Amino acid sequence: MVRFFSALGAPLLAFCQYLGELVLLAADTFRSIFTHKLRWKLFLNQVVEIGLLSQLVVIITGAFTGAVFSAQTFFQFNKLGMGSAVGAVVSVSLCRELAPVLTALMVAGRVGAAMSAEIGTMKVTEQIDAMEASAVNPYKFLVATRVLTCMLMLPLLTLISDFCGIVMGWVANTAAEPISLQLFIHDGFKDVTFNDFLPATLKTAVFGLIIGVISCFQGMHASGGTEGVERAATNSVVLASLFIILADVLLVRLILVFFS
Questions:
Q1: Between the chain's N and C termini, which has fewer beta carbons within 10 Å?
Q2: 12, 120, 13, 109: which is closest to 61 by C-alpha?
Q3: What is the pLDDT of residue 8?
Q4: How far apart are CA 82 and CA 96, in angstroms?
Q5: 81: DSSP letter
Q6: Pure H helices in 177-203
Q7: Are 208 and 108 in contact (CB under 8 A)?
Q8: Do residues 64 and 102 touch, judged by C-beta distance below 8 A?
Q9: pTM for this structure?
Q10: Contact criterion met (CB below 8 Å) for 195 and 89
Q11: Rounded to the nearest 10 degrees, what angle do helices 99-107 and 55-79 cross at?
Q12: Of 146, 151, 156, 147, which is closest to residue 62 (Cα–Cα)?
């Protein structure tokens, strides 16, 4: 029995310690954001890296998700004589859940690994130690701009994914039963309010916080040379994806309580 509880307690304590270290890193990051002057050059570089260069994968993901979901929905609804409801189901599903989560997961895979590998390389080559020895705050210089950019870019990328998914959903729908884009969008959004759309989009800022903090944390704690950097990059993607899904469960519940 003692061995059982010891085996059960060790991973739990390690997980709690990991959460605590993430919270401390997030606190240091926000302190750096609000108490230090923003380095605009670094910020704009991260806007390009995280926002602009992630558009293609977000567009492809949103477009094909909307097309497949629309085709499957039309196939099932048409059997029940409810083909006209496809636009509403596709639009609401994309805006409220599919686009935010899939966008966050794709950005976590593309950006999270890159951020973790970049910072991890600086860690194992002792560049971060050199910054601290030179009285340069690595949290302000490396972490703050990346986390802030992730939080700002995720909602914008989600809007792009929403648009592409709805347009390709219309294309898939009109391939089976011709319908104008105007009518498809009208049917899709006639019953949609800001309470359906805005909270779901803004929750991606929390996903951006998760991606930025976890990726930077894994990079800051990388060790063991190139293998350690590779391990940090892999762990950042896996952990960020898991935390995004867990956070989504909690955020959906909060949104239903406060905005339903």
A1: N
A2: 109
A3: 63
A4: 21
A5: T
A6: 181-189, 194-202
A7: no
A8: no
A9: 0.88
A10: no
A11: 150
A12: 156
